[in-house]
Amino acid sequence: MSKSRIVITCAKGISSYLQEEILGLGFPILSEEISSIGTEGTLEDTLELNLLLRTGQRVLFLLKEFKARDPEELYKKVFGIPWEDYLSEDGYFCVTSSVDTETIRDSRFANLKCKDAIVDRFYERFRRRPDSGPERKGVVVHLYWKGERGLVYLDTSGEPLSKRGYRKIPLEAPMQETLASAVLLAAGWKGDGNFINPMCGSGTLAIEAALIALGRAPGLSRDHFGFMHLKGFNESLWREIRGRARKTAKRPFDGKIIATDLDREAVQAAKRNAATAGVDHWIEFGICDYSETPVPEGAGIVMMNPPYGVRLGDKQRLEGIYKGMGDFFKKKCEGYEGYIFTGNLDLAKKVGLRTKRRIRFFNGEIECRLLEYELYKGSRKRPSYRGES
Ligand SMILES: C[S@@+](CC[C@H](N)C(=O)[O-])C[C@H]1O[C@@H](n2cnc3c(N)ncnc32)[C@H](O)[C@@H]1O
């Protein structure tokens, strides 16, 4: 099987974590952008990337790069791709795009041109044409068209990889699974010690922390990927890759993962999500105010993602919560590393502790910070760190 360029997209600002993961799987890094990493491999390599990457969003396999000055030229170039090698004439496909070119304003027109080119090619050769539509339930074709440069990819993920398949019950303001993973990697969580997650909401951080601690592949709970619809999909290789991933998912973990929230419904949802992800036995859940969360003797990470006002809660109440988090860290979390993930830096000042690191993230369009507090036993003055904002 021949190699091609593979572009793996991710949420804005987390590409350095994705890069580490890709290197860890033995793939080269060919480019790095704010929300994607370029590598190379075969179409079969995309199976492993889809199953194992924690911070990637879509795994795009390049079929063709070309010059297209207008929609007619785009049609011709897309028509020239041997679609019958990837798609069956009775199959289904969907076209998505990212378009920034002067010749058209509406990316839906570019999608339509691609779709027409694909079905016309089939009709010309077989007098039959595959179905197409907006749902990502079959082969997904992705067009990137910027200026005169066009690139056509197979989106081998189909649905974005942040949809792990375990979040059955959505709540307000959940963290995206891929972002939660990046935040945990930024905190250096590898499963050493305990992971304490007050204000757990739907449990994303605790579930991702358990998956990392156990070495469990994030894609194991998902039963659908775009590559499964490609002609010649190697099902036995897929079974083999999944089997291998299941075996490595048995890493011993002797720490505790504790997740609590004041909201009973949130805890119920988190429990069910954890059960779907297959990690409920590894997480102790509780309904309580964050300040009552049990913190076992020992060391590890205490991580909180409090409401930050933009979408949830009101300012005064939130100021009280943030101040209280500082007290909770000081009184109950000595010896741990404390983290707060928030999109509200004014509120974060109320914590009243000096930060050791401030790492920038984006939750959708909201600029956020992961704030690290080192909670030494006894009080100790620490220097502030440079190069972090
Ligand atoms: C931004 S959400 C957390 C989202 C979570 N990271 C997820 O992915 O679903 C904040 C959570 O804090 C909880 N919360 C707010 N005030 C609290 C308090 N005083 N004690 C415990 N939990 C609280 C809310 O119920 C909500 O679930």
Question: Can you give keywords for this protein?
Answer:
single chain, alpha/beta, eight-stranded mixed β-sheet, binds S-adenosylmethionine
- Average pLDDT works out at 93
Structural class: alpha/beta
- The proportion of residues forming helix, as a percent range, comes to 25-40%
List unreliable stretches of 5+ residues: 379-389
Order of helices and strands: EHEEHEHEHEEEHEHHEHEEHEHEE
Give the overall shape: elongated
Within the largest sheet, what's the order of strands?
A: 2-3-1-4-8-7-5-6
Strand content: 15-25%
Radius of gyration based on Cα positions: 23 Å
Q: Count of helical segments?
A: 10
Largest sheet: 8 strands, mixed
- Terminal CA distance reads 45 Å
What bound compounds does this protein have?
S-adenosylmethionine
Total strand segments: 15
Quaternary organization: single chain
